[in-house]
Amino acid sequence: MHFKIGDFVRFVDEPIEGHITSIQDNDIVGVTDNEGFEIPVLKSKITLVHGNMRMPEDDMEDTAAAANQPFIDKGIYIGIGGEQKEGLAKFFLINETSYELLVSISTLSGSKTTGLFANVIPKNDFAQIYTANFSALGKWPTFHIQIIRHSRVPQTQTQPLSKEFRVKPMDLIRSKERVALLTEKVWLYELDKTEEDIGLDKLKSHFISHRPNKR
């Protein structure tokens, strides 16, 4: 069976579950358990756990009911949970909007990408997309995140989101934040934040207003 980083697996011969956090030589993978310990194991000694996979039909939007509710169009985040002393970092994609999100996430290496996660995330929901060890923070990958926002009620047309995202060690100095959808605090990164367009006129005005006075 083909395994990839982030897969949730169970040991065949032992009562151990965890996420694959490294691919090693000789058909060995590293599985990190809930205690944050990475355990090397042969691929033949683990099996993929399918029980936590989401399906789009599990949460179909009720169009008639949605039309009578306020529509939330902002609130797409990456959240990183876990305690550095315990070793295991969990990455979540959090959807606080009224959109269904069609999500594709890849890791970047030079000019090549490797698919990591692809699924539908219902409105006001989340999905765990990746796990890693805090001890390897400097080696965490750069993620390429692509998101299409979908709604069954009429909304202003939106362009797909396309972002590159990488966590730097200094990012984790700031405090975690509480998210209603999760049971733990996370470091939060907003993906759909509106980028301010300064514009030429504003830029000219800025420099003119800050120009030193001549004597």
Structure description:
The structure is a single chain. By secondary structure, the protein is mainly beta. The protein has two domains: 8-48; 65-200, Sandwich (Immunoglobulin-like). It is 7% helix and 40% strand. It has helices spanning 63-67, 199-209; strands spanning 8-11, 17-23, 28-32, 38-42, 46-48, 76-81, 88-95, 100-109, 112-121, 125-133, 142-150, 161-165, 187-190. The longest helix is centred in the C-terminal third of the chain and has 11 residues, at 199-209. The chain is globular and about 60 Å long.
Could you say what the CATH architecture of the largest domain is?
Sandwich
- The number of helical segments is 2
N→C terminal distance: 77 Å
CATH topology value of the largest domain = Immunoglobulin-like
Could you describe the largest sheet, including whether it forms a barrel? 5 strands, antiparallel
Question: Unreliable segments (pLDDT under 50, ≥5 consecutive)?
Answer: 51-62
As a whole number of angstroms, the C-alpha radius of gyration is 21 Å
Tell me, rounded to a whole number, the average pLDDT.
81
Q: State the CATH class of the largest domain.
A: Mainly Beta
**How many strands?**
13
Outline:
globular
User: What is the H/E order?
Assistant: EEEEEHEEEEEEEEH
Number of domains: 2
Proportion in helices: under 10%
**% residues in beta strands:** 35-45%
CATH superfamily of the largest domain: Smr-associated-like
- Strands of the widest sheet, in order across it, are 4-3-2-1-5
Structural class: mainly beta
**Oligomeric composition of the shown chains:** single chain
